[in-house]
Amino acid sequence: MINGTVYDFESVKVLLPTGLTLTTEKISYKDKKDDEVITGSNGLPLGIGRGEYSGDCELELSRFEYDLLDKFAATSGGFYNMPPIPIVVSYGHVGQIPTTDTLMVHFTERDLSGSKGDTNLKVPLKGPLTAPLLTNGIPAYTPGL
Predict the structure, then answer these.
(1) Alpha helices (H) in the chain, listed in sequence order
(2) Residue 124 contacts by C-beta under 8 Å, 6 or more apart in sequence?
(3) Interval 119-138: pLDDT, tens
(4) Element (DSSP H or E) covering residue 123
(5) Is 65 exposed, middle or buried (CB count within 10 Å of its CB: 0-12, 13-18, 19+)?
(6) How far apart are the C-alpha atoms of 22 and 20, rounded to whole Å?
(7) I need a surface site. Which of 4, 60, 92, 141 has the fewest CB within 10 A?
(8) Can you say how many angstroms the Cα of residue 57 is from the centroid of all Cα atoms in its chain?
(9) Can you tell me the distance from the alpha carbon of 59 to that of 86, in angstroms, rounded to the nearest whole number?
(10) In this structure, what are the phi and psi dihedrals at residue 132, rounded to the nearest 5 degrees?
């Protein structure tokens, strides 16, 4: 499911720095901007107070895909030393022009419970977005505008 729409497995492609994933179990991401309406003493709106932009990503990989990412992370000195990585998600139903979202994610959490030898083991990863989400190349937020 992406943005509330269910897509079949063939309609969603996830690209990591290690290549196109073949067994992404789940991907979920969201962003927000904490703007607030500023009101005068009469209770009427005067404008918008600009809040902070933030977002996060949850990714669930098969153990095989996770091991590839972990080997990639080793070049940075370990999983948590890895700089933010691009994750490209392309989705759309058959016959539809696909939508492509690009996220920059710094993973800060992983769950490695289970047997290392099990190739069907799912490894959940979580982390914040480190740049505004791009949808078809258009940023969700541009600072200063």
Answers:
(1) 63-74
(2) 58, 59, 60, 110, 111
(3) 568 899 999 999 999 999 99
(4) strand 122-128
(5) buried
(6) 6
(7) 4
(8) 4
(9) 13
(10) -60, 140
